[in-house]
Amino acid sequence: MKITALLDLYRKVAQFHENEALIVRLQRCKVVVWLTPQRRQIILCVGAVCAAVAGTMSRHAPWRDYRFPSTWLVPAVALPILLALIYLLYLTAARFRHLPAWVRARPQVCFHFFFWALLLWLWLNPASSLFSVAVMTLVAGSLPYLIWRCGYMLLCGQRGKAAATKFADHFFYIFPMWDGTNTPPGKGHDNLSRAAAQTPAAYSRSILAGIKLLLLVALWKGTMQVIGALVYGDPKSSLTGLLGGHSLGIPRLRSVLSGSVAPSLAVVWLSLYLELIWECLFIAAKGHVWIGILRLFGFNVFRNTYKPLLAESVVDFWSRYYYYFKELMVEFFFLPTYLRYFRDRPVLRIVAAVFAAAFFGNMYYHLLQAKHPLIEADFERLWWLLGPRLIYCFLLAAGIAVSMLRQQRQRGRAAPPRGGFYRLGRIASVWTFFAVINFWNVLAPISIPERGRLFLSLFGLR
Amino acid sequence: METEQRKTALIDFLRTIQRPDCPLQEIDGDLSLVESGLIDSLALLQIITYLEQTYGIDFREKGIDPGELRSVNAILEFIGREAAA
User: How far is CA B84 from CA A123, B73, B80, in A?
Assistant: First the structure.
């Protein structure tokens, strides 16, 4: 009885964001009433201007004195060019129906072609110290961050929805004040406008859901500190000192790969699983900040990470681990392939679309992310960064394709009764799959053949 | 095909692809199909194939916004728009 009462209390506390009394109280607050959708958008747009300035300056920092000795003139010219480019793309999206047929057919490809043409121009001017080259270097260096965000704006145009939108409806998510990686959390206008709270009651729900995520950030960061101290003995963890340097001494996977430690096979496997848990916590903590802020501004969008370690299939894990990256891959690579090719061959249609997203799209995304070697045409470093990832992405795509086809076969059939052990077995197999393929995802200063030998040794093969 | 017929046919189809571990007896028109657990995001592909085959909708040029397939009513609205286009 006591346990039931405790569980009820836990649910009440954990689900505080759905507490109707709290929602009613919050929706009466003057601030909540005053912050109408229009006012929130104005704040977000002002924030976007600040984010654009700060982002361009910070992206310029690594390039400072590269090719052109200037601290402020280069970003001062590059930023208006970027803003003009984004506005031009907005006009393209808003007047999508009037574009030439070849642009309408593949708007994203055209936009990416522009980026690659810019890169080519930079590669052809390697030793130049011209001001224009320095400016274009910063423009090209900013595009990997903007390219997918602008891509969502173009998608909106492609779907015929951008004509009814204003530039401000897009600007705030292209230079988001909540920052993030190259992946746009919350996606673009189509998704954000659907999730936008229109009433004080809906806004109150969104605020509480945002607060919950921000509290979870603190919890996951605390858990990472504990794991860092207790498991890894990480000197960066503030708890390591409290434990007097005592820890389980499990090495991080990158230490195993770089050969700085030589643990037993059992410890290597433990390190693999712990790396997976660590990465789930890390990505959840980061993603909850972005989505938490979005929710505080009334966009009650899905979480970026939702209990990935409870996923029972590979495809389910991929969807729960980094939702907005998966969505990016689905919308820019999976669906276009699925809708265009192999329409009369269902299995091949799915396999081709999965490989387009999880293999090609994933590789391409990370190629753009490696902007410094890419702009400097440092192909050796690019290969070092991305070579092992080719194997990671291939294994990931193969796993997702098999998982999707299996699910498709099972869909619609009555589920046979399955016990808790069956579920645990499924979860364990998903953990194992992702822990093992992560071996190819962690950066380490070793060659691919060396990594291959280490990989085989995991299974007793050498 | 009238809206009611379309709705019945769509619900019959959804029953064939619903998640085996989460069958719903009644499918409300505005119920979010994925959030309710009725279908997973993968099943959206089967909905796309269903729309292609049943209504001859060609997604190649306009693409598809997964949000337009979020509920029975949203799918019916989408079919209506495409039929009128």
Answer: 50, 16, 6
- Best to test chain B binding among A338, A403, A404 (most B CBs inside 10 Å): A338
User: pLDDT below 70 — which residues of chain A?
Assistant: 1, 63-71, 127-129, 411-418, 462
What is the structure's pLDDT at B2?
77
Q: Do A194 and B17 touch (CB under 8 A)?
A: no
pLDDT digits (tens, 9 = 90+) for A220-242: 999 999 999 999 998 888 888 88
Residue A138 exposed, middle or buried by CB count within 10 Å (0-12, 13-18, 19+): buried
Q: Is A135 exposed, middle or buried (0-12, 13-18, 19+ CB in 10 A)?
A: buried
Instruction: Report residue B31: phi and psi, to 5°.
Output: -65, 130
pLDDT in tens, A7-16: 888 888 888 8
* Cα–Cα distance for residue pair A171/A185, rounded to 1 Å: 14
Q: What tokens appear for A16 in the block?
A: 């505080």
* CATH code of the domain covering residue B18: 1.10.1200.10
Report how many domains make up chain B: 1
Is residue B30's pLDDT more than 80?
Answer: no
Which chain B residue lies closest to A302 (C-alpha atoms)? B35
Here the tokens at position B23 are 């069958």
Q: What is the pLDDT of residue B59?
A: 85
Is B71 near chain A, with CB under 8 Å?
A: no
Whole-model pTM? Answer: 0.91
* A269, burial (CB in 10 Å: exposed 0-12, middle 13-18, buried 19+): middle
| Whether pLDDT at B41 is above 90 | no
CA distance A456 to A452: 6
d(CA A281, CA A284): 5
Residue B34 pLDDT > 90: no
How distant, in Å, are the alpha carbons of A95, A335, A356, A420, A447 from that of A155? 12, 12, 18, 43, 39
Cβ-Cβ contacts under 8 Å for A406 (sequence gap 6 or more): A313
Greater pLDDT, B57 or A65: B57
- Which residues on A lie below 8 Å from B57 (Cβ)? none
Bridge partners, residue A299, by sequence: A196
Instruction: Find the chain A residues whose C-beta atoms sit closer than 8 A to any C-beta of B.
Output: 104-105, 155, 158-161, 190-191, 194, 315-316, 319, 330-331, 335-336, 338-340, 343, 346, 350, 353, 404, 407-408, 410-415
Residues A224, A278 contacting (CB under 8 angstroms): yes
What is the span of the domain harbouring residue B56? 3-84
